[in-house]
Amino acid sequence: MSVYTVHEPPPRNGAVVPNPERFVFVRDGFYLWAFLLTPLWLLWHRLWLVLLIYLVAMFGLEQAMRYAGVDAAGRSLVMLLIAFLIGLEASTLRRFTLARRGWRNVGLVSGTNMEAAERRFFNDWAAPGQGRSSGGAGHPPPLPPSPAPTFHAPPIVGLFPEPGASR
Questions:
Q1: Average of pLDDT values for 149-159?
Q2: What is the DSSP letter of 5?
Q3: Sign (positive/negative) of CA torsion 85, 90, 95, 99?
Q4: What pLDDT is stored for residue 129 in this prediction?
Q5: Does residue 4 surpass a pLDDT of 80?
Q6: Separation between Cα atoms, residue 67 and residue 57, nearest integer Å
Q7: Phi, psi of 38 (to 5 degrees)
């Protein structure tokens, strides 16, 4: 079962209720296409800043390894490991970019595939008393604040003397 984060777009033209068709579900996990075709995957998902950083870093790293005398096999291994890292962190890169663009993370949902996750999320989202159909703000009510932790002064342990004790 896959886990997805749900991102709500910023409101358009003063709209109070965002269009549910614009919500984005980002799957948590490894992205094979981000691993195999990193620049194209970044372009497809419109991650412009990430693509720019990736290209500059790859060029700089390649030049630094050439200057250091690393052979072709070593350079290829480093590039493969970086591509693997991109595949692992692709969902984080998408979430980062969405947050920079003003999108809000409004939920976490799991499902056997994206369609099942969407169905589950929108069923909960539109439930009476919680979602848009109730005429409320469209978000679940905030959780009550947690009680402040109480800190007790533990006895001093170790080589430090206790206050008020004689030597």
A1: 59
A2: E
A3: positive
A4: 55
A5: yes
A6: 15
A7: -50, -55
Q: Which residue has the tokens 């848009």?
A: 132
**Per this entry, what is the length of the chain?**
167
> How far is 95 from 50, CA to CA, in rounded Å?
12
Report pLDDT for 62.
94
Strand order through the sheet with 104-111: 24-27, 2-8, 104-111
Angle CA 1–45–139, to nearest 5: 60
For 139, the token pair is 């978000």
Across-strand partners of 8?
104
Average pLDDT over residues 128-151: 52
Contact 121, 132 (CB under 8 A): no
Question: Cβ distance 8 to 23 under 8 Å?
Answer: yes
Tens of pLDDT, residue by residue over 22-65, are 899 999 999 999 999 999 999 999 999 999 999 999 999 999 99
